[in-house]
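I am writing to request your help with a piece of structural work I have in hand. A protein sequence and the structure tokens that stand for its backbone fold form the material at issue. Please examine both parts with care and let me know of anything in them that strikes you as inconsistent. The record follows directly beneath this note.
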Amino acid sequence: MKKQLLLLFLIILTLEVIAQTQPAQPAAGYGGAADSYSSVTAFNCNDGASGYMLYIPANPHAASLPLVIFSHGFGEWNPLRYGQWIDHIVKRGNIVVFPRYQQNEYTTLSTSFTSNVVTGIKRAIDTIQAHPSWTQPDLNKVFYMGHSYGGLISANLAVNHTSYAIPKPKAILMACPGYGTVPGGQLLSYSAMDSSIFVLDIIEHDDNVVDSAFALTVFNQTTAVPYAHKNLVIHFADSLAMPPVNSSHGESACTDSTYDNGDRGVVMAQAAFAFTDATDFYCYWKLFDALEDCALTGSGCNAAFGDTPAQRNMGLWSNSVPVRPLEVRPHSITTAVNTASAEEHTKVYPNPGMGIFNFETARSEVQQGSIEVYNVLGKKVYSKLYSGSFSFSIDISSQPSGIYLYRLLAENGKLMAGGKLVIR
């Protein structure tokens, strides 16, 4: 009897799980279904490793609109793979250029990927400007975004836009950026990223194609870009219902046959598995929409940055249980005190440094307390108790180069100051 009851319970539980559905696309707002344009005009200039696809909003006609450069992942030069996301971006009011940087998966050298994209961008801009009756790109409102190798390329474009003679971006979004088993396309350093560029760096928790190494490299090296407009975002799986929310490398892909240009390749065979779900609406689409609005008008910053509820929100399952939210680095508890408290009350030197940092605080409340140091993934890598002094030193030179966050706590656990440490 007990076995039968247990079996019945498991059946009921399974049926309840299966009965739940993922969050639907919001009707409006960031990531939402509301469009400003009803159709898209496409131009196929896909003539090789420096070709491109061009998408311009139509109905109504606009004199000029922002320009979005969408760089594909390795082997994914058919926009079919990202069709629904492209359609969403264009119909919200952006010209989209989709450069192709590979002839195929085997013959195009990774060292030429970025230069091929640069050529495609210039060709696309020249093509539009040669047709003055078309909607023109506003070259002061440019965004670079990409998935996988395309995310890496987007970072390259942002750092070297002057030498490439392409427009400076307002912002970049990198979706699972990296090079996997095909290195050679990355820069030696990303430390020259202009401080005015807004940066969203998104990784999937279960990504086994490129992992998080490159994303962390960019996040750690772009020290001039303030946390006010730079976040590392981590997306997690949630298997509460069927189909589950997954967190693999290809989550930003969302097939739309309308955008199929006919190209096929080894990687493109996976296109049939790229369906659109809550991860698209609440992670990638929402964050890019908010990022663009934040960079252009200042209106979307609360949803794009800051470890806010709006930024982390992944919607609700049909039973009103929240989908596992995004995690954001740095956490809001450190960014909240990063600038004001650290500069007003605490001196840290040398910073950047080699790992030995000296602290001097003018606050009597922290004469006794502790200091905690975290890496950008939120793991505590150092802690120390101190008492009887307004100054002390810490040694974290055993940690790798990069950005770390510290919290200075009073004896009662109250957060008194916090900020950033940079190990060269």
Q: What stands out?
A: The longest helix spans residues 278-297. The CA atoms of residues 81 and 271 lie 6 Å apart.
